[in-house]
Amino acid sequence: MSREQEQPSFGTADLVAGTQPSRTDEARQPERDQQPAALFPSDTAESFRSRWDTIQIGFVDDPRKAVQQADELVATVMKSLAESFAGQRASIEGDLGQNEQASTENLRVALRSYRSFFDRLLSL
Fold first, then answer.
1. Both ends of the chain: CA-CA distance in Å?
2. Which of 11, 23, 47, 91 measures 20 to 30 Å from 62, CA to CA?
């Protein structure tokens, strides 16, 4: 039995549905020449950074509150990232259509879209 057959399938639909992956293998992709696009628009990223700076400064006066706020901010960023991915995934699926007769060109474009998002995630 090959390694791929031993591990259960886990796709992005599972992620969007909130299920947890059951495998932990880490595969590295070759580095690409182009820098991937940012995961968040610059104004959103700047807002997150500003909130982080405020939390970090507040640590001096109330460490426990700062840690709680840091946890909440990280959860907010992760939720925003998941929502962004869900939107992009819906767009990719919309481009493919619901039938199983998608053209090779449509599938190629979908794979490129997933690769782009994947590269952006690894650039963190």
1. 34
2. 47
